[in-house]
Amino acid sequence: MASITYPVLPEKLLLISLKMYFTPERTTSYMRALLDPANEIVHPQNRDKLLLALIPDFLTIWPCAEILKEYENKLVASGTSISPPPFFLGAQDCMWEEYGAYTGEVSPAAIKSLGCSIVELGHAERRAIFGETDDQTARKAAATCAQGMVPLVCVGEITAPGAVASEAVGQAVAECAVLVRAVLAAIPADAPVIFAYEPVWAIGKPKPAGVDHVAAVVEGIRGVIGSRPGAARVLYGGSAGPGLWGAGGLGKAVDGMFLGRFAHEIEGVRKVVREVEESLGVA
Ligand SMILES: O=C[C@H](O)COP(=O)(O)O
């Protein structure tokens, strides 16, 4: 069997999920805006340090892939390398089988064929609303890796921290560890994987979780992951946006952020990118 080539992950990642918020028209114009050099968001020369990715809904993966191809063709024409790619496209879910009689599901092979590099799995909304289980998420992660894509696995505790901070951290790490272990057991050891630490109680809120709590839980998650041949990145998600990364923020604790609503306006994305670039010394 031919060996699988996986995407290369840089030091830091900023991933944006549009969930089911946008019309197709808004998604495609948003994608164009993200890639427009005039907006100064994607900097191919910084690719080894910082990578952005958009995870639109299934309907708009194809048009976004076409927009990405146009962008990459222009880069090549101007003499800029697109290896490794300067921007990733992702999907919000996939089926654990490659093809078959699975009405309403989406094949990981089809997702890959459209040019996606990342598949988001096990998001709290899929678990709470659609009943996705740890076992299903782990099988989807394996199917994602089998296509040479990177699983982006969402983990996070359900209940907000109580009065004793250390107890809250221990409880959160224990809750996250179950899915982290299930996924790591299901995927090849050399496959890259991204875990998005998203405390369920911090998703869709006005403010993110506290920096100290996130840093402590992420450290615990890194301990559960341990050392492995494949790259592992741990991001934070849950009402993340401008102002969270820089001095006294999450920059030192995590490998990037998973953005939702606070990336809906291009200006918000630009601010977050700038904060990360400044911390990396590439602004
Ligand atoms: O997928 C993204 C996360 O669930 C965060 O979403 P949010 O920033 O809108 O809370």
Automatic annotation (TrEMBL):
It catalyses: D-glyceraldehyde 3-phosphate = dihydroxyacetone phosphate. It comes from the Eukaryota. CDD domains: TIM (cd00311). The keyword Membrane does not apply. Keywords: Gluconeogenesis, Glycolysis, Isomerase. It is an enzyme of class 5 (isomerase). Its EC number is 5.3.1.1. Pathway: Carbohydrate degradation; glycolysis; D-glyceraldehyde 3-phosphate from glycerone phosphate: step 1/1; Carbohydrate biosynthesis; gluconeogenesis. GO terms for cellular component: cytosol. Homodimer. This is Triosephosphate isomerase. It comes from Penicillium cataractarum. The lineage of its organism: Eukaryota, Fungi, Dikarya, Ascomycota, Pezizomycotina.
